[in-house]
Design brief:
Layout lengths: L25 E3 L10 E2 L17 E6 L18 H4 L4 E3 L5 E3 L2 E6 L5 E6 L13 H12 L8 H5 L1 E6 L4 E6 L6 H7 L8 H4 L11 E7 L3 E6 L13 E6 L3 H10 L4 E2 L7 H5 L4 E5 L5 E7 L9 H10 L2 H8 L5 E2 L13 H4 L6 H10 L5 E8 L2 H15 L3 E8 L1 H10 L5 E6 L6 H7 L15 H12 L5 H18 L2 E7 L2 E5 L2 E2 L2 E2 L5 E2 L4 E2 L1
Parallel strand pairs: 3-12, 3-13, 17-18, 17-19
Antiparallel strand pairs: 1-6, 2-14, 4-5, 6-7, 7-9, 8-9, 10-11, 11-12, 13-21, 14-21, 15-19, 15-20, 16-20, 22-25, 23-24
Helix pairs in contact: 8-11, 9-12, 14-15, 15-16
Length: about 525
Amino acid sequence: MTELHPSMPTGPSRRTALRAAGGATLLTGLGLSGCRSAVSDASSGTQGAGAAPRRGGTVNVAINSDFTPGLLFSQSNQALQHRLIYNTLTRYDDHLTPQPELATSWTYAKDGRSITLKLREGVTFHNGRTFTADDVIFAVKNLQNPVRAAQLRSTAATITGFEKRGDHGLVLKLAHRVNNLFDLFEFMIITDPGTVDDAVTGKRLIGTGPFRLTKWSPGSGLSLTRYDGYWLPGRPYLDRVEVRVIPQADALSSSLRSGQSQLSFDVPGKSLGTVKADPKLGITDYDTGAGAVYLGVNTKVAPLDDRTVRQAIAWAVDRDRLLDQALGGYGLASAAPWPKSSPAFTEAHRTHYTHNPGKARELLKSAGHGKLELPLLHIALPSDTAIAEAVQYDLKQVGVDVTLQPTDSATAQKKLISQGMPALWTMNHGFAQVQPSTLAVSAYPFNEAKNTSKYHSAHYTRVVREAWTQPESSAARANALHDEISGILLDEAFIIDLVVRGQIQVAARQLHGVALNKFSYLNLDHAYLV
């Protein structure tokens, strides 16, 4: 039994060894511990050093696209505010070991077919209602609803039974063993069941988190105030959080340099050099790989139904140039989706495709193509546009003329979910930073049952399903399955990974105690201004 106590998020780390959660284990605790692994370019105040915490003040967070209520239960670049309003059941530390949040302890059955949760007592929603086991049951069933478009719905669907043990005890019964249940627990926000229909329209967002939503102004942002009834004693320190939509890259950077904003994760790579030179600001790179930049391929659009053509495109892109010029050098050029912290990472997979336009042209010629014309959808934001233009340039060098199709974030996400993408698209994906099986059973681009590329293979499904249900104790078999999944992804090239990158945080040095969870939910429980 391990005791955990309320604490500040842990400091910077480059740990790469991860320990999977599971087995017949019991973990108890009183509060939060751990954070996303972070590395600062300089002594950024957000890493917890400096003056003692001070109560009060307002933090202005600059974002480049507005909150989309209809995507509340899916992970996207609009999920930043989730952990300000809501809590989750658990939260990973740097080692992928779950830590208590609304669940304070848990016991896995030896056969992996059930888990018993002890839930935190004395927790209330922002409307004053007491949090109980019924709210967890609702949260699971809510994610099981296809209307919610939740990426971890397949994992939620394995929970087929609930046994309440009083108001704060709950047994979840599983259809079969899965090794990513704690990914679900970190992903799944606990909402007030009575107001969930209002939440998905943006009218009322009621959770148990440290801040209450007081106003959402579509196109402008969200206003949040401290929830005085928060369950973590003495937290949060801040009085208010203002999340401000600033879609123009120059204006967003200027708001940070002028002090109008104190925090952002949306500064384009091309602007990071200017920001880094400002002594009032610090850059923090969350290096556990929050996601990756990728080129998606619709395998039902000719000639992209030919694997040889897809492989040619994978060889054509100059990942190193894209990383340096479009992303400011922050990230890891990689043909595979995995960050270095993942158990699935290998250097051979990372470098499987390098920039080789000659080989790309040879493959296109062998497939009977001299010149191709294809559309490419991208999000109409500066960083995303820079990535799309870099891909467009590289493909042109091998005879593939690409027409760019800029669109807004919400539309792109809906097309991703509905399999409505054109021949090519560039976006960011997550889910490689948690249990490796989650990527292939949850992320829309990779989902073995239904993915955006419309790729299907019985072999891919078999390998993914075995990896998903593999006991954590079988490390050798798990590693072999991870290698097999990577091999399929690289060989079939229906998703062409380009750069693995973490969230890049730019913050005023007066701001301390900022953290993110594995799904990039912003945690300001311990944040304060000096």
